[in-house]
Design a protein that fits this description.
Two copies of one chain form a homodimer. Chain A is built from ten helices and eleven strands. Chain A is α/β, with parallel strands linked by helices.
């Protein structure tokens, strides 16, 4: 379901001013919900007031929808930030509407950079975008990337000397190009920089950020709301857990799709 | 990344007419990709030609984006089917564009019905929608629901006597209202009816359907593409795995949000 975003946003405001009562099943009101929340949740580490998720034509839908879903329950509505106003089309053809554009956003507490394929390589060479990311990063509390979004973040130079993770395909080689230290993890934290492996790893990273800032109970509440207790029908989801023939086929496919464009990835010299 | 949808759709067509060669790393072309795919994938059980995902204002974003993502890699582009043309807004405010509307769709091989909260209860009383679902179900190969989408499917009467699963909140009571047999599983298959638990369970169910129809290697290829090897930062995601205080708080929240509307759920007498 998705009651959490609505309830949290409204109740986080109430929560500050109400006395505590014990949790009971009876007579639930917005008022005693707020009491309940005070008993269950820690005080946040940082007061997060703005969360922005970069989007662009060709972005991977799950890369940004997963984090958007998790952060929607954090009491702040995440903004989808485009390069231009209006509609954006994902890599697999979902058309959606951005909330704002990069030129209108001067500051974010949390920045999420999702990935894609060819469009992501193009974004990793867009100086206007990369300069904007560097500007936002100056005052951010969390600067993050999901999947090949790490290629964009890497191109800014901000991952130099930092441990990082990204999509499995040519992971080590690409992170090394950006001066990052390949961690080969589901998600990696190095200071305020959080970078995740491919696609669904963005949900795990976002939950970890929620746990980091709002405490474990908060993350667990969101996990229950999204029933995030994965039970796929078969083992898989990483190169190690995938049948060798299947893995090889996927590697060949990726290669055909993004070679030679991928070879152009590098830190872009920004002024 | 998201190369799979594009590559699969184009290569599935080529695959039928090419001789097999052994998998090698060298000289990758669309042609030998097709050969590779023939070696790796089984022949599908059914030739699936149309996949439709119902969407409506107030739908849960992850409920439909997860299945859409998985099925986008199955060689058929899933259609987002609205009650009206144009934009739809999810429960957490994502605005996106539908591909078509229920009145224009007479037949689907796969139907996915995602959930939400109040909007879903309303949809479960919309006779025009319920009649459409029954019509589609007559010729479907898979009729499925995600999360509280099971409330809509249940309201058509199609789950009578069937094992089913849905979102954890008052699961047993609600499924019983629809004459279904509560299975309390991550996802449940009863004949052609597949019903999943909340939100992210829709991904597991969709992968299981892919495995059922296209074979395990196909599902594993998609899982690698979406790096679906969940590693959340803490245990959780089901009532049983959630701290009692957190669970109780969430139950109270759900109760405040959807009571008494939820009491109106029942099989709607359709003509």
């Amino acid at each position: 379901m998705k009651v959490l975003s609505v309830v949290f946003i409204s109740l986080m405001l109430i929560a500050c001013n109400t006395p505590q009562k014990e949790i009971t099943d009876s007579n639930v009101t917005a008022q005693n919900h707020a009491d309940v929340m005070k008993q269950v949740f820690d005080t946040p580490k940082y007061a997060i007031k703005s969360i922005g998720i970069l989007v662009y034509d060709g972005v991977n839908s799950m890369d940004f929808i997963g984090p958007r879903y998790v952060f929607s329950s954090s009491g702040v509505k995440p903004q989808l930030i485009g390069l231009k106003p209006g509609k954006v089309k994902t890599a697999n053809g979902l058309e959606f509407v951005v909330n704002t554009v990069i030129d209108s956003v001067q500051k974010l507490d949390v920045l999420v950079i999702p990935g894609g394929t060819i469009a992501t390589i193009k974004a990793a060479q867009n100086r206007r975008l990369l300069n904007w990311i560097k500007k936002i990063d100056k005052n951010s509390i969390y600067t993050t990337s999901v999947c090949t979004g790490g290629w964009i973040l890497g191109a800014t130079g901000l991952l130099q000397g930092k441990k990082a993770s990204t999509n499995w395909y040519r992971e080590e080689e690409i992170l090394t190009k950006f001066g990052a230290i390949p961690a080969n993890e589901r998600y990696t934290k190095d200071g305020k920089y959080w970078t995740s492996a491919g696609v669904t790893a963005g949900m795990d990273m976002s939950l970890a950020i929620v746990a980091d800032n709002f405490g474990k109970n908060y993350a667990q509440a969101i996990m229950l709301d999204m029933e995030y207790d994965a039970q796929p029908p078969i083992e898989g989801g990483s190169p190690e857990k995938t049948d060798k023939k299947v893995y090889q086929m996927m590697e060949l496919m990726y290669e055909a799709m993004i070679t030679p464009a991928i070879d152009s990835l590098k830190i872009i010299n920004l002024k």
